[in-house]
Amino acid sequence: MRIYTANLLMFLGAIGLSVTGVVYTDAWLGSRRAVAEFKAEQAQVTAASAAVSVSTKPGSAIVGSAEASPHANSDASSYASSYADKDANKDGQVLALLTITRLKLEVPIFSGTTKKTLNRGAGVVDGTALPGTAGNIVISAHRDSYFRPLKDIRIGDVIELNLQNGMQRFKVGETFITDPLDVSVLDPTDTPTLTLITCYPFYYVGFAPERFIVRATLLDS
Question: What pLDDT is stored for residue 191 in this prediction?
């Protein structure tokens, strides 16, 4: 009987590990796919912006045409802005890429912090500023996946938010640990601020009792 029970437990454990592996693999692949799609669209925006620049130069002409099209500038501008004006609340829409070069961290940023969102990357907390805008941009992700590198973050590190039509660069000014019920970290700020939130301790087994906070201020945009 004991042998049967032991074998059953081993079998159930193997199934559990297999399911966990499939979930993490799917999350990693989904995240990488989102990053690749964002960069492809970003390249299209850059190309469209370049077309706007060329078409507005005196004497410029569209290749293959005898003369420059009078609609070239407006067409290219419309094409570029079509990405910048995408609905920020659209399910699955990547708002930005968060990058910390020293930590080799690159993660897609989505709208909201639902279970599905945090399985694919990091999410902007509802009610806080969106990437590319002023105010307090609050981004959350899991400590055991996308935000695990934050355990090694330092004061002075630079965090980049790569947008479809530009970039925001922030400098880390402080890190601290707080209670999960401390909502003051979500408060609006007078100056452009980036706040990163993840659970703490990083290697805690089960539901972590605290929150690790990174606060950074805008360097340039």
Answer: 92
Cα separation of 80 and 42, whole Å? 9
Residue among 83, 74, 79 at smallest CA distance from 132: 83
Give the residues across from 122 on adjacent strands: 109
Find the domain containing 180 and state its range.
89-221
Residue 119 dihedral angles phi and psi, to the nearest 5° = -80, -25
Question: pTM of this prediction?
Answer: 0.71
In 3D, which of 99, 92, 96 has the Cα closest to residue 84?
96
Contact yes or no for 173/151 (Cβ under 8 A): no
Same domain, 49 and 147: no
Is the same domain home to 115 and 25?
no
Which among 85, 118, 137 is the end of a domain? 85
42 and 119, same structural domain?
no
Tens of pLDDT, residue by residue over 102-160, are 999 999 999 999 999 999 999 999 999 999 999 999 999 999 999 999 999 999 999 99
For 80, residues 6+ apart whose C-beta sits below 8 A from its C-beta are 45, 48, 49, 52, 165
CA-nearest of 161, 162, 117, 177 to 142 is 117
Contact 220, 194 (CB under 8 A): no
